[in-house]
Amino acid sequence: MGGTLAARTGPGVSVRPAAKCKFRIMCLVSILCSLMLLEACSPPRPDHPVIGAKNFTEQVILGELLAQHIEATTGLHVERRFYLAGSYIAHQALISGRIDAYVEYTGTALTGILKQPLQRDAARTREIVARLYREKYDVVVTAPLGFENTFAMVVRGDDAQRLGLRTLSDAARVAPTMRLGVGYEFQERPDGLKGMSEVYGLHFAGVPRVMDLGLLYRALNAKQVDIVAGNSTDGPIRAYGLVALEDDQHYFPPYEAVPLVREATLAHWPQIRTALAEMGGKVSAEEMRSMNNSVDGEHLDPADVVRAFRLRKGL
After folding, report:
1. How many C-beta atoms lie closer than 10 Å to residue 260's C-beta?
2. C-alpha span between 8 and 16 (Å, rounded)
3. Residue 134 has what pLDDT?
4. How many domains does the chain have?
5. Distance between CA atoms of 234 and 135, rounded to whole angstroms?
6. Confidence at 136, pLDDT banded by 50, 70, 90
7. Together in a domain, 224 and 272
8. 97 vs 79, 94, 137, 264, 269, CA distance in Å?
């Protein structure tokens, strides 16, 4: 029916084009003012670095290690935000600026965060992870801490001896008689249960029992399950005389522990770069396993365990 000189803003109300334009400008200004008010009311970014950690013992120890070393070498106060659930939550906290750094594992970063194909070479994995974090998230991957924490399928020591279990290929022979316990992430990850079962032909008894990581070894010792998907540096492996089966077909990718830090953080506090570089190569797998056991097995405070470690290492 052709154009009209009036535009409706509500039932029974007409506004001419000039008034309509003015009305829209006023609405836009109102929205912008509201956004500015919300920004002004939001809590300011703390003027100190914030170190994060995921929700298991080793992560808390590593987070505390970074925090203590940064404090000792830079004089900065460091806030701790630990127990950030899984990898995805820690990653989101990092890229959104709620934390400035945390320790990740290269294989987890490659497949779980960056959604890249599995790689078997540690140096190649590290190179891909470093490049993509820089390009996609403005995050720097610093020097590896010196150890690798890979997934490990763990059985009771007496079962390993009785059944002749040394490798995952050995486990395939008896898997139909074994009840499996796994953490939430391992069941879903592309480098987790499904792929491992296909490579080794593992078919366990019934459906896996999915539980919090902290409960896996309790369930194994209580004989509620017969094999669990743990981590190679878990303290209970040594403390309870358990056996981690060898990944003889090299299914799992490298999982080097590497601190991740925001580029904006390094620009604001350049001394943190030096502090993190000094941590490169300082933690062996055995030292990590020992610290984990001190917390899990001996119930020591993670901060005290880290202070003792730093004293021994001259840090």
Report:
1. 26
2. 9
3. 98
4. 2
5. 33
6. very high
7. no
8. 13, 5, 11, 9, 14
